[in-house]
Amino acid sequence: MRNQKLKRQLSTIALGGVATLIMAGCAGGNAAEPVADRDLGTPVAGVVPEGVFDGVTLTYAASGGIFQDGQRDAAWDPFAKISGSKFLQDAFDAGKLKAMVDSGNVTWDITNATQFDTARGCGTLYEEYDYSQVDISKVPEGTITDKCMVPNILYGLVVAYNTDAFGDNPPTSAADFFDTDKFPGKRTVSQSPYVDPQTVEFALAADGEDINNVQVADIATAFDKYRALGDNVIGWTSGAQAQQQLESGEAVMGLVWSGRGYGAAAAGAPVAPMWDEWMIMVDSTAIPKGVKDPQAAFAAVNFYLGAEQQARMTELTSYGPVNVDAEPKVDATLKTWLTTEHLKTGHAPNIDFWVENYDALSDEWASWVTGS
Questions:
Q1: What is the 3-state secondary structure (H, E, C) of 77-92?
Q2: pLDDT band at residue 36 under the 50/70/90 scheme
Q3: What residues are paired with 110 via a beta bridge?
């Protein structure tokens, strides 16, 4: 039922409320430099004509680490080799993106962003997609949530728990994460610079609230629920720190990005995921407003979406593929952590609400991160 709800919710968002926001914002930004079109034919995901972008340099900006390295090895470098282009990597920074767009000097071609960021910045910070240049026929249903994105990865905010501590009686609900009598020990929760609405929704789900009917007042309530854990809650400011806390046993439970839970398990830590209740996350593959060669950027994204590229990306990063035909070869540990195996029990985010109330969320998140 929840998977059907996911599809209905995201499809409605894509056609409804977010579209209104997008249309309002599309007048802003700087026009791209004109670049002569090449004849690429009908796009097929994962395919690019040989040598078609000879001499072109493209840059991908993302959050680094094994995630960005895996995408480079699975898609961007192979694209460069076949197309004749050069593909550079950079670290994504929201302030830098805005400065580029405002100045009209955009040096990035593709970025990784949250689906909330692309919905909020569609037409002002990000280009609308020309889907006639990108084959989206194999993208998982419901994962295109605004006109300025295709999915980048499918992952989740999940409870990772210590099997030595709770192996015989594991947590099975969001409420269990907050039950320190039944499940004693420290929990770790995000206090990173990345504002995750799903962190709020998880706390509300633990109280039995309908996350499709979130109110602004619920945001503070959710953070108060984390604060009420007192000495039993610690924060993580990066995915690497969350993973280390799980590996060391400093935290017996963590609300973490699924790839970091997998990283701890792959390193040998006694850690397992709780799939009974988790929060679905989809990142966006976005193109900055004013990109100098839109056709090359669209072609690179089209290549990234191929089944072979997505399978390899999953094998290298542990994040779920965004091509339904992808067949990654994974070991038993990685298979346990793949979100694509558990979509029926995941909660999809209330995107419309968070786009509309992002400033309120940011204010409360800042208070939570700073301990105020």
A1: HHHHHHHCCEEEEEEC
A2: low
A3: 60
**Rounded to the nearest 5°, which phi and psi values hold at 253?**
-150, 145
Measured CA to CA, the distance from residue 152 to residue 139 in angstroms comes to 10
DSSP state of 230: G
Token pair listed for 42: 């009908």
**Nearest of 105, 107, 70 to residue 92 by alpha carbon:** 107
Q: DSSP class of residue 96? A: H
Q: At what angle do helices 197-206 and 358-370 cross, to 10 degrees?
A: 80
| Phi, psi of 352, deg, nearest 5 | -55, -45
Give the H or E element holding residue 277. Answer: strand 271-286
Return all residues near 363 (Cβ < 8 A) that are at least 6 apart. none
Q: What distance lies between CA 250 and its chain's CA centroid? A: 26
What φ, ψ does residue 275 adopt, rounded to 5°? -100, 0
The answer, as to whether pTM is greater than 0.70, is yes
Cβ contact 171:319 at 8 Å: no
Task: Tell me how far apart the alpha carbons of residues 310 and 306 are, in angstroms, rounded to a whole number.
Answer: 6
Phi, psi of 216 (to 5 degrees): -55, -40
Band (16; pLDDT cuts 50, 70, 90): very low
Q: Which residues pair with 59 in a beta bridge?
A: 88
Structure tokens that stand for 99 in this block: 């400065």
Please report the DSSP string for 115-162 in residue order.
HHHHHHHBTTTBPPP-TTSS--TTSPTT---STT-EEEEEEEEEEEEE
Q: At CB < 8 A and 24+ separation, what contacts does 75-82 make?
A: 75/300, 75/303, 75/304, 75/306, 75/309, 75/312, 75/313, 76/300, 76/304, 78/303, 78/309, 79/48, 79/299, 79/300, 79/303, 79/304, 82/48, 82/50, 82/303
The mean pLDDT value of the chain amounts to 90
Contacts 24+ apart (CB under 8 A), 79-82: 79/48, 79/299, 79/300, 79/303, 79/304, 82/48, 82/50, 82/303
- For residue range 267-292, list pLDDT tens digits in order: 999 999 999 999 999 999 999 999 99
